[in-house]
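Re: that chain you flagged

S.,

Sorry for the slow reply, it's been a week of failed gels. I finally had a moment to sit down with the sequence you sent. For the record, here it is as I used it:
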Amino acid sequence: MLFKAGIIAFTLLVGSLAFPAQDDMSIFFDHTDPESRIVGGVTAGPVPWMVGLSQGSLVRSFVCGGSIITNRHILTAAHCVDHVFSGGRLSSTLRATVGTNRWNSGGTSYTLARNISHPNYVSSIIKNDLSFLVTTNNIVFNNNIAPVVLSYNNVGTGVQTRVNGWGRIRTGGSLATNLMELRSTVVDNNFCVETVARVARELRIAAPAVQPHLEICTFVAVNQGTCNGDSGSALVRHDNNQQVGIVSWGLPCARGAPDMFARVSAYRSWIENALRQ
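Prediction finished late last night. Pasting the structure tokens below so you have them in one place:
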């Protein structure tokens, strides 16, 4: 019984970062506390590389964030793609909306032709959690729509970062109408590993092992965390706006543990190869 409870708790971890819509998605992606998102964030200004992924025919539901890398490639988390991938293909209703701070209005929406997910993505431990979505048509760039620059430099302790996303503005509150932003700091690897393990014990949940060579850990404070953003969104350096990570997973939202991002610098060869496809 305890084993079963631990497995159920573990399957909720990724959901602390994604999917504010209330639909029939797997609990693996549900928020452990569906009312606590965008806690501690502020309203974002223009973010030209920001992508809102949504699906649905009559009523659209938000899926994940992403970032524009080229005029055909959108970078997101592999677990986001898993959610909209079945029967050997992407959901036919999946759309990528760019050029707006409101995922459900304005901007321009593109259909997706295919995905290129990391071949070693492991959902059970949330590792190698990155994927590209390739648009059917070229994304048209303008003042509001532009690619982000990827940085392959190692990101160390103390680097100031920010992440954007849509979601609840406070515990028990409504979904954010506008894109939100959270600023955070990259923390020491040992602090990250030890703190995640400690908070997981306190919450009595099974947590994946932190692997600092594959993941960047950031932290702000209790009641502020990357549940504030959405899975798949870009973690960028605050000083130069270059993307260094992808929102991947975290313990239940803003409970005092660092949040995890797939580390862009760890995947340079795979990324460069994927961008040629």
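What I noticed first: The chain has two domains: 34-43+149-265, 50-147+269-274.

Talk soon,
D.
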